[in-house]
Amino acid sequence: MYFTSLPDHTQPGFDEQLHFSRFKKNNIIFNTQAQAGHCDEHVGCLSIKTTLSGEEWYGVGRRNLVVRPGQFLILNDDQPYACRVKKARVLSVFFKKDFASALLRDCHSREESLLDDPFHSSTDLPVFYQTLHPIDGRLKGQLTNLVVSLEQHGYEADRVSEHLLFLFRHLIHVHGMESNHVTRINAVKRATQVEIYKRLCVAKEVLHSSFMDNLDLTTVSAYACLSVPQLIRQFKVVFGCTPHQYLMKVRLTYAASKLSTSDEPISTIGWQCGFENASAFSRAFKAALGASPEAYRKQNTNN
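RE: above sequence
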């Protein structure tokens, strides 16, 4: 099923039970330009969330995650969550359970096993770490091809299933990369490695969602329930940079996007990204991207 608008849960006569029952029976795709929308409580199926513009906020457990362009979030099957969106282009893909189970078996089974029992049914599903991921070139291409196909042909089940197969395989690849990240953590027990990784992901999400604020390591470590030394040490092992370096990357990536897509004053953009003054913003931007904010805007506006 394919939707180009979000459902209005407040509309008189809206059948919420019918709406959510569709997620158990169909692969569902939302590709919508939303002015505003929210869902306070939903138990969904395995899904991938991203935005093409704007922001969408998700409440998962006690955590709040903000999804912006260039990022995606995977939510597990039967995961309770809340979401809200305002002025954003939202792209969400929901995988029907038996469809995703069959794809998982195809990913993990040897070809001989698939030949011996090609129609084996399973309810197994992967359990993903629910954290933000960057959209790489491969995934961007897959999402673009899916959207173009839907816009040109509408929802043709077989055509969409083929796109979703390759999209799902990429998600399994991401899961494997996460497992490698977990093994980098210097701890004896696997359970300890997993718990530290989850807490590092909380720290990473705080940096993403609150980069406009005056964040310090003490605040981030409190959110993640890790001491400051352990946070710095393990964060660098897993993500290849310190929390402060990661924060600067997030701020400057957002600033570069604003410079190339808006006409807001450069000083305003710097302030929005958490820099105390225009000089500090200009120095950091030029050091990271090789051009001043003014030059970067001119170069990307003319393209």
